[in-house]
Design brief:
Blueprint (H helix, E strand, L loop, with lengths): L1 E4 L7 H10 L1 E3 L23 E6 L3
Antiparallel strand pairs: 1-3, 2-3
Length: 58
């Protein structure tokens, strides 16, 4: 199991490569509440950066 703040949005290519390469799945994939909220007026939209990933059961 891997948990933490990965500092990348859930829909990023980096996170996709991570899950494909490691075989981990995002256990919180259904939760769409943003955990990163930049100051208002910023160029980056709110997005999810905290994850809990685990291998699929055999």
């Amino acid at each position: 199991m891997v948990t933490g703040d990965f500092n990348v949005p859930r829909d990023s290519a980096a996170f996709e490569r991570f899950t494909v390469t490691t075989g981990l799945r995002d256990l919180l994939a259904g939760d769409r509440e943003p955990t990163y909220r930049p100051p208002s007026g910023g160029r980056i939209p709110p997005h999810w950066t905290r994850y809990c990933c685990a291998h699929r059961p055999a």
